[in-house]
Amino acid sequence: MAAAATMVSSAGGLLAMLNEHHPLLKLHALSNLNAFVDYFWPEISTSVPIIESLYEDEEFEQRQLAALLVSKVFYYLGELNDSLSYALGAGPLFDVSEDSDYVHTLLAKAIDEYASLRSKAAESNDEAGKVDPRLEAIVERMLDKCILDGRYQQAIGIAIECRRLDKLEEAITRSDNIHATLSYCINIAHSIVNLREYRREVLRLLVKVYQKLPSPDFLSICQCLMFLDEPEGVASILEKLLRSENKDDALLAYQIAFDLVENEHQAFLLKVRNLLSIAKTQTSEPAQQVSAAPESAQNENASSEDVQMTDETQASNKSVQEVDPKEVTYAERLTKIKGILSGETSIQLTLQFLYSHNKSDLLILKTIKQSVEMRNSVCHSATIYANAIMHAGTTVDTFLRENLDWLSRATNWAKFSATAGLGVIHRGHLQQGRSLMAPYLPQGGAGGGSPYSEGGALYALGLIHANHGEGIKQFLRESLRSTNVEVIQHGACLGLGLAALGTADDDIYEDIKNVLYTDSAVAGEAAGIGMGLLMVGTASEKAGEMLAYAHETQHEKIIRGLALGIALTVYGREEEADTLIEQMTRDQDPILRYGGMYALALAYRGTANNKAIRQLLHFAVSDVSDDVRRTAVLALGFVLYSEPEQTPRIVSLLSESYNPHVRYGAALAVGISCAGTGLSEAISLLEPLTSDVVDFVRQGALIAMAMVMVQISEASDSRVGAFRRQLEKIILDKHEDTMSKMGAILASGILDAGGRNVTIKLLSKTKHDKITAVVGLAVFSQFWYWYPLIYFVSLSFSPTAFIGLNYDLKVPRFEFLSHAKPSLFEYPRPTTVPPTTSAVKLPTAVLSTSARAKARASKKEADQKVNAEKTSGPDSSSTASNTGKGKSSGDKDGDSMQVDNPAEKKSEPEPSFELLTNPARVVPAQEKCIKFLEESRYVPVKLAPSGFVLLKDLHPTEPEVFSLTDAPSSTASAAGGSTTGQQGSASAMAVDEEPQPPQPFEYSS
User: Fold this and answer.
1) pTM exceeding the 0.85 threshold for the entire prediction
2) Which of 450, 382, 398, 389 is nearest to 423 (CA)?
3) How far apart are CA 139 and CA 847, in angstroms?
4) pLDDT in tens, 334-381
5) How many Cβ atoms are within 10 Å of 53's Cβ, its own excluded?
């Protein structure tokens, strides 16, 4: 063609031929012009009207060629819309498979055009939308070509964007690796599809395709069904697996149940659980239910197998036939799966893990306590908060017991918080939550205690049973009904909201509403939040009446509680929530606009939706109220937590704003969305803010930094060590502002949260949002107005553990490999170094030499303790005793986790890997290094580097060795913590003889 072009120096002659009458001449001209258009388009463009008239002439046989030529000229002129419309006129002459810029550009244009037409049609529910059939034909040709060429991912992307689910199905079913393609589709559906309704359609289709496969991937199907909120589908799959002859199928069912539990959707799980029990009709129900007490009528009825029937009342009226062995195994499995679905099994195991691996450092707390002035109640309370967060879920309340007189200085609301802190420490201690809190709870009619500690105790019960309140709801409701004291109502409303999270129980809603209508500011605020927690994500019309009351009442506190409550109701509803969001963000009252920011944050949580981000950024720079601006920036953290890398980039300019409120919001936004990631950009953005000129900005930045750095070791980022030292300096500095001091105290609690075994995670491994965690952080961020809400942060903690379970849901000993240097992921070293000791003594001037001598002595003592592995009772160097305890429970192989003797370590080079023993601490950054050993006795059902993983036993006949408690249902562990076989007697803190909670304090009014 180039040669031809050299012979022809102008297209003038060919253009002249277009005016001839004979069709053959015109055809000759058109086909040659089409060949030379790349070179002569400027010349040809002058004659476009003539060529257009040829295309419009119905009798001309080569109309399509004329259209193609005009299309190419317009393409070179940059008029893509015209170019596309003529390309459509060219019909089959427009060759999709041609590899030229012209075709690529127009195809992209065609697909975009088609996609936008289809989505507009779908949004206006106009199914027969005005889509040009020729455009549709081009897109279909393109899709078919992708499928033929084996570019399935491209085809899937185009099909999803163009809403062609039929083509999507074809692309998936014809792909060479259907399972991989399906999981790719699921990721695409969550990351790219913006509209919730359409995403659900895509997922429905994927479930349909999955179910047609010969060996369906039930784990993924159930995740999709959970998104679609179809508990029936999940229940039938679980039942099918449980009834299977094959033991592996039962293991798979348990694994599915654990994966569903990880998403923390209480209402959904309870529906699945209840559907399972009904399904069984062959014999009376030998399903053991944990919740209801056995009824005598049912017990007489019990079958010869001696199975107690405690499944409410369903089984009581059925006659008993001979039970066949299949049903017996089904019944056993059913009991187990109900335990998992109700959340009890995982809560129990987590409790045991956090207790046996607790590595919290009491010396840090001691330092804080000594440096905080007695008169400063804010820092006094902050220390209590930090202790609760540091020991969240570990059941270790040593610090409180040792400092009872110091603790009793808390009065009024500080006392409320101190009592509620026990709920965080004992979180998940279901069997004994009630008895632990008994000394503080309102005694029926006696009314002896302080209302503050009674209210705090009810709040604590909610925290213990958060998102798992079957057993405690009734008690909390009665407590709420039987009191008129607003402080107790406050605690009961928060407790009820937590326990019945997202269950949308109407009776409870009415109870809380009655409290709201008393129009008491203190109780009303908690009632608003409690209603929101109860109705999380239901988008119920109850939000309307809450909004109406918010307009009526005079109390700012109540309006604020309701604003947050309304935001919680639209959790995850995306575009469905737009009308409500619009209504709130346009409100005259800044507090309701502030609620509107939370509504945006929670409705679009983790979707990284552009529209939501745009709205929030608009409010962040334009609203007249500082509160609204601060919250708008903070809300970005919730919208973006699925793509944490984006957040520092988006808020980087806001973090340099002149307005301190906006800077504070930017800090927390980064803290929320990058929590537990240790992202370098996030840390760089927060560093300057930790030394900001405004005290509350420093507070926010310190807390956010702790959230980002939780579970990151100094070896993987040296700034972690610097940050710990900075916290210590702020806490010990006499002249530091109370606000930033409080921030530093809370930050040191979050940094070592849950005995250094938990991280903040808002997404489960299957990329679902963890409802409880997101809600927890949303309410936590309210602590700006109300300190007791700080405890909500404990809802977002998830243990960084690999817990392998066998068929009996026990934890067998089995080793696996972490393919990284042990120091990268080890626990932080206990603070027993000279500088801290001298620093602790700062308030009473001490010579540095004597301090050093003392420090040496105490260090020696600590080392001897560790070596002797004596876990002698709670004393100041309990870190040392903890380290010993962790080891004696056979939890880590000797040198890998021993960090107290740096001297020994230096002598030999560090190994490049370590063997971990189930159950093990596996931090998020470590997950990619986890490998399972080839010749191991146990094989995981699914290759997951952390969380609850079911193990297939390859030598079922040999005896097994267990790591955690032997009998999860026995009374020993009903006392709630693990006490490992080897360690039970040695440890003074063995949970069996756990000391009673501190006595009710003595107060002089």
Assistant:
1) no
2) 389
3) 82
4) 888 888 888 888 888 888 888 888 888 888 888 888 888 767 778 888
5) 12
